[in-house]
Amino acid sequence: MKLLTCLKQIPDRDTRYEINAAGTGIKTSDLTFEISECDEYSLEESLKLREEHGGEVAILTLGPQRAEKSIRKGLAMGADRAILVRDDEGKVTTPHAVAKVLAEVLKEEEYDLILTGTQSDDWSYAQTGVLLAELLGLPHATIVMEIRADPAQKKVKALREMESGWFQWVELPMPAVLTIQAGISQIRYASLKGIMQAKKKEIRNVELSDLNVDLSSVPEVEVLKVYFPVVEKKAEILQGSTAEVVEQLVEKLKKEAKVI
Amino acid sequence: MAAEVQAKLKGGEFLITASDPQDVFTPEDFTEEHQMIAQMAQQFMEREILPQCERIEDQDLDLTVELLRKAAAELDLLAIDVPQKYEGLGLDKPSSTIVAEKLSRVGSFAISYGAHCGIGTLPIVYFGTEEQKQQYLPKLAKGELLAAYALTEATSGSDALAAKSTAVLSEDKKSWVLNGEKLWITNAGFADLFIVFAKVDGKDFSAFIVERKFAGVQVGTEEKKMGIKGSSTCILLLENARVPVENLLGEKGKGHKIALNILNIGRYKLGAGCVGAAKAAIGDCLSYAGERQQFGRPIAEFGAIQEKLAEMAIRTWIAESMAYRTVGLIDARLREVDVDDPGQALKAIEEYAVECSIVKVWCTEMLDFVVDEAVQIFGGNGYSQEYPVERYYRDSRINRIFEGTNEINRLLITGMLLRRAKKGELALMQATEQIFSELTSFPEELDPEEKLAEEKRIVENAKKATLMVAGLASQKYGEALTDEQEVVMAAADMIMEVHGMESGLLRVLKIAQKGSKDLELYEKLIRCYIHDAIDKISLSGKKILGSVCEGDEQRTYQAALRKFCKHSLLNSISMRRNIAGALLKAQEYNL
Predict the structure, then answer these.
(1) % pLDDT > 70, chain A
(2) How far apart are CA B230 and CA B63, in angstroms?
């Protein structure tokens, strides 16, 4: 099976972020970066599918040069090769634009399955995978927790997580796009052997400008303001007899908090 | 890929020669692979070891074995120092040192791992015959066999070569018959094979590969220890143990070479382990001090606590600089030799035996200081097993005792330097004479524009002070100096401080060359350390001078010592507050 996994590099989740001077994002100068969590699970699923059916796992990333470090980790975990679409200035931001760029690169690639994370840990749009499927004219399944592929029949079954503890099995013809949920398996370590082999594996750099994509038609999103949630401590002590207090409380829950 | 450093210095030569920052290996020189290895080992520690710490500490040895096997199967961690030819990875020395550092947070597991990979496996790597290597190394690399090292006996601890265990060739000449009792054997509870030292016919000190399943091999009950309680430590009993004749390791009568060299390798790794444990303790202190409120404020806001945090971090950083500088030298030397020739590889490591001892002593004492202060920062809670620092405190104490006590290592530091000088391998005497001839000269003015100019001068002078005092002691006692252990140990203290100062200073200078937004902080750190260390050197120097000379001679040398140890006063209180402030902001050791 030819498997293609999209990895996104995001700021380390354990970092203490600071808002940038313009107030439109976070300062990136002192940050360390890592692979977005869902994407790590999608890589793990790809590697498991390769173990089961043979074939190849390729990583596809859009990002600046520093993303190579995260890609290298993916290669150390066992992926065979990688493509990095270089966007050093961070021009491509919206899910639609990202999907368009990725779709363009994928024109040249062969694949049976494309796996992405359900969403990224930075912007959490949860759209890129779906848009990518649409642009490539492929079927897709989102929030996937388990995959059963049948390469001979060119079919794949996917278990989707739904609301309220419901699950759904769907069957799709391959090629297809699956967006993978986090926490569904145990992510493997990059072994020492894997780490030493990773530097010998290919990371093909593709310049954004060399791709035939026109992003002018893609609506842009302007970030107006980024801020930390305001921490507020408010306490109100209700006075009166128990019956009165209960009455006041119910009233407040209905009218102010609007929870009942 | 970071530039590799060159091994321009011979062992011990740092004391008489200045180094270029470019020739010093530092954590800032880690390659991308080193960084990935560090991350992977840290992940393994956080995901697999820390959550099970309590069970490990209750000495659930099945769990420890399971985790060791997992480390082998999923991460190849047990293959790290085994050559590729024998299904290992044969990675460079910084790689295995980084792993030792990252795993040290849970001392018990780190010791189990380290004993297997180091003293358990390396004797076969360096001294085994081709057959022995093929038979054992692949299984040791995969964790199918776990190893231990049996040297100490009831009456031979530091004096290891005085072992009483015996080996006698059987009548049919097919096996060795071993008898004796080995003490404090790490991993004994589960090890499948032991590197055992015994005297052939009661005289030729030799090493043997002894499998647990051999007839006559028995393991005693677990010792009740102060710390690293989760590791296994038992007596190994050999009662007419039958060991195949081909399991003699190395040459008959050359066991001391194995015993001493293998300990050497362990020492720098132990140093790095102490660095990792110190970082963990500091991390816990930073979050505790930020949360614990007294007098209506987090205790992190108090100068008393900030000073402790800063000093803990300063010493950890210096220790790290010393340990990785030494690993870098060893690794550079190993790159020059044929690593497939164990003799050459061993010689490359042996070259830096002095540095290995320095790193062992300095780093283990650094950690004892750090964990002691950690308990203090936690106050009453630090004395409770509810908090991790209680364990750090107990786990740290053994480090000053095993791998050669710090006293033995101090004697070795001075002793080995003098021996190298005598053999003509180190121009120590010439350097000392040069200093005696310079005693009356006046120092040049410092360039006020040059950064760290005073600290560079102090390091130079610290070397002169050390050489002068050690030279005088050597003149006075000659061969009998080895009997003056207090003098030898004080000289070792001076030598170690020189190594610490210089390793830290060179690292800061290298960081300055590369550029760093935290450069100012590093400059403060190194200035604080160097100005303190020169006072320590002065104290040790006075102790020696008081014993080796008197009258006018003493006054002359005391004046010279005073001149060499002169330094300006710093506002070290404010500098330490800055360092603590940066750490508290990051909430982790991130220097």
Answers:
(1) 100
(2) 10
Residue pairs between chains A and B whose CB atoms are closer than 8 Å = 46
Which residue from A176, A170, A43, A55 is spatially nearest to A113, judged by alpha carbons?
A176
DSSP symbols for A87-135: -TT----SHHHHHHHHHHHHTT---SEEEEESS-TTT----HHHHHHHH
| Average pLDDT of chain B, as a whole number | 95
Distance CA B418, CA B328 (A): 24
Q: What is the DSSP string of B356-373?
A: HHHHHHHHHHHHHHHHHH
A169 contact B CB<8A = no
Within 8 A of A16 by CB-CB distance, chain B residues are: 586-587
CA distances from B178 to A168, A236, B165, B168, B198 (A): 67, 81, 7, 7, 7
ipTM of the complex: 0.88
Burial of B8-41, coded b for 16+ CB within 10 Å and e otherwise, reads: ebbbbbbbbeebebebbbbbebbbbbbbbbbbbb
Alpha carbons B359 and B278: distance in angstroms, whole number: 14
Query: Domain A2-211 adopts which CATH fold?
Result: Rossmann fold (3.40.50)
Nearest CB among B44, B89, B586 relative to A189 is that of: B44
pLDDT in tens, A240-250: 999 999 999 99
Q: Say how far apart CA A157 and CA A147 lie, in whole Å.
A: 6
Tell me which chain B residues have a C-beta less than 8 angstroms from the C-beta of A196: 33, 89, 91
Q: Do B77 and A193 touch (CB under 8 A)?
A: no
In this prediction, residues A204-222 reach a mean pLDDT of 91
Dihedral over Cα of B185, B190, B196, B198: its sign: positive
Amino acid at A111: Y
Predicted confidence at residue B466, as pLDDT, reads 97
Q: Does B36 touch chain A (CB under 8 A)?
A: yes
- The domains of chain B, with CATH numbers, are 13-146 (1.10.540.10), 148-249 (2.40.110.10), 255-407 (1.20.140.10), 414-586 (1.20.140.10)
* Residue located via tokens 């102490």: B274
CA–CA gap between residue B123 and residue B433 (Å, rounded): 41
Q: Please write the tens of the pLDDT for every residue from B117-168.
A: 999 999 999 999 999 999 999 999 999 999 999 999 999 988 888 999 999 9
Q: Which of B74, B66, B65, B87 is nearest to B141 (CA)?
A: B87
> Does the beta-carbon distance from A72 to B95 stay under 8 Å?
no
Per-residue tokens: B239: 């009662």
For residue A64, is it left (φ>0), alpha (ψ between -120 and 50) or beta? beta
* Confidence label for B47 from pLDDT (cuts 50, 70 and 90): very high
